[in-house]
Amino acid sequence: MKIIFIGFMGAGKSFFAKRLAERLGIERIGTDELALKKSGRVSIGEIFDKDNEIKFRELEIETAKELREKDNAIIDAGGGVVENKIILDYLRENGIVVFLNSSLEIIEKRLKDDGTRPLFKDKEKYRRLYELRMPLYKEYSDITVGTGGMIFFSPDETEKLLDNIVEKIKNHTDKPKSTKEEKL
Ligand code: S3P
């Protein structure tokens, strides 16, 4: 099984991908980490500063292509993958796409002191990105899970949310194939 987590910055993709991978006993792969390794830079911020965003997106394409045939893994994808259908198509091949959805108000609180995300610095810009991407996350996902209730997740809340994700994945995989195709 290949599960791909998508969603806006700060929606909890890495956090829940790690916890779900532990629970299912499978590998968790972060596209940001792989793209960074390829870049030779020390951070994503440095790629944006010293190279540019295009360079980062090229590295994301390379990374996604390598993950195309991956199985038995949770892939935690950078928030921008939905803007590039090629990246998304590579990642989601034979996989289930889970959209982690949070309101921007909660995300702003979660990322208040975060300096690691180059696209979460200018309020106007990230608001526009949020508006632009929301319909794309919805369009490209098989399952949506709300992670918006809290700023941080207690162990209990984390477990509950994981139960919810697992159940939705199970319902989706149990669905007859024709129903899934209708959605496409
Ligand atoms: C980005 C999101 C980041 C990272 C890069 C660009 C985006 O990942 O890929 O800073 O375009 O939304 P997270 O969603 O894990 O923060």
List the defining traits of the structure above:
alpha/beta; Rossmann fold; 9 helices; globular; binds shikimate-3-phosphate
Short description:
With 184 residues, the protein is an alpha/beta fold. 55% of the residues lie in helices and 12% in strands. Residues 9, 13-14, 32, 44, 78-80, 117-119 line the site of shikimate-3-phosphate.
Topology record:
Elements: E1 2-6, H1 13-24, E2 27-30, H2 31-39, H3 44-50, H4 53-66, E3 73-76, H5 85-92, E4 96-101, H6 104-110, H7 123-140, E5 143-146, H8 155-174, H9 177-183
Parallel strand pairs: 1-3, 1-4, 2-3, 4-5
Helix pairs in contact: 2-4, 3-4, 4-5
Bound molecules: shikimate-3-phosphate (S3P).
The site of shikimate-3-phosphate has 11 residues, from helix 1.
Structure write-up:
Strands 2-3-1-4-5 form a five-stranded parallel beta sheet, with helices on both faces. The protein starts with a strand and ends with a helix. It has one domain: Rossmann fold (3-Layer(aba) Sandwich), CATH 3.40.50.300. The protein has nine helices and five strands; from the N terminus they run βαβαααβαβααβαα. It has helices at 13-24, 31-39, 44-50, 53-66, 85-92, 104-110, 123-140, 155-174, 177-183, and strands at 2-6, 27-30, 73-76, 96-101, 143-146. The protein is α/β, with parallel strands linked by helices.
